[in-house]
Automatic annotation (TrEMBL):
Domain of life: Bacteria
Pfam families registered for this protein in UniProt: Metal_hydrol (PF10118)
Organism annotation: Alcanivorax dieselolei (strain DSM 16502 / CGMCC 1.3690 / MCCC 1A00001 / B-5)
Name of the featured protein: Metal-dependent hydrolase
Length: 286
């Protein structure tokens, strides 16, 4: 059932593909690179592990239906989405390899294997329309996390300089293309209840995965025996105005039949942070 269907321009600004080739110089000395906090650092590390395979899944889900779009600008936006997600996979793989090299190789490999099995199951058992619905929902989650990063200067300042450009760059690009998968889903199917089922199931899987593997990383470091450190980290994430808890209202907005990603027009944040990025090795505008 489509319920309310809303059509808008797929993006509010050009979707620029940037190949960055980050060197992450100094990461080996950074320790817990997010505010010297093991909980937040490992949560973000675990999220990063999902990105290379997850974003290839997103690309395939979108590419499967791009022939349904006739508008030339929409086609450019889809090309930009595909190009940006491909770059995210490359840069986060390089970051993940460095994390693995800090003594977490077994855990990183386990998390990668679980990610790949989950996505293989989705490819096998879900029809293409549901894969696209899941992509639209997960893109909303990445978009609201991106908004939290760009909209809270203290979040960025808590990141070690060795990794800060990676997360700022990723947040900018997730914002630039945040409507592409959603708009395409509206064109292809637009079924409200399928969109919500996919969103809720994807959220549940993501929470379960990140919670389990963040705990495994903390156990590896012995932090699970440090209740004060755990409490401090959990409060930073889930307490009042926490990094994760502050995204909850935006998460609920996706449940509205009238939802559209650009209801939250945060292009000003992209403009504010874009100039802080290092020069890309290669860039193009879709």
């Amino acid at each position: 059932m489509r319920l309310f269907s809303r059509r808008r321009t797929a993006s509010r600004q050009p979707i620029k593909v940037r190949r960055m080739n980050f060197d992450f110089k100094g990461l080996e000395k950074a320790g817990y690179w997010y505010g010297d906090d093991p909980v937040a650092t490992h949560l973000l590390n675990v999220l990063s592990i999902t990105f290379p395979d997850g974003e290839r899944f997103f690309v395939d889900a979108v590419r499967a239906f791009r022939d349904r779009v006739d508008d030339p600008q929409r086609q450019k936006d889809i090309s930009g989405f595909i190009g940006q997600e491909a770059m995210h996979s490359l840069e986060h793989k390089a970051f993940n390899d460095l994390v693995a090299g800090q003594g977490y190789d077994v855990l990183v490999e386990r998390a990668l294997n679980v990610t790949q099995k989950l996505l293989a199951g989705a490819r096998k058992h879900l029809p293409p329309e549901r894969q696209l619905a899941a992509t639209a929902g997960l893109e909303h989650i990445t978009a609201i996390l991106a908004d939290t990063i760009l909209g809270h200067k203290d979040v960025i300042e808590n990141m070690d300089p060795s990794v800060r450009p990676l997360w700022v760059w990723h947040a900018i690009e997730e914002t630039e293309h945040k409507a592409v998968a959603f708009e395409l889903y509206q064109d292809v199917d637009g079924d409200y209840w399928q969109r919500q089922r996919a969103f809720l199931i994807s959220t549940a899987y993501l929470i379960t995965f990140t919670s389990y593997f963040t705990w495994q990383f903390l156990k590896h470091d012995g932090v699970h025996r440090q209740p004060l450190t755990l409490a401090k980290g959990l409060w930073r994430l889930f307490g009042y105005r926490g990094v994760i808890s502050s995204t909850v209202p935006a998460w609920f907005r996706y449940l509205s039949p009238r939802f559209h990603p650009w209801d939250d027009d945060n292009t000003d944040l992209v403009a504010q942070w874009r100039d802080t990025l290092p020069e890309p090795a290669v860039s193009s505008v879709a």
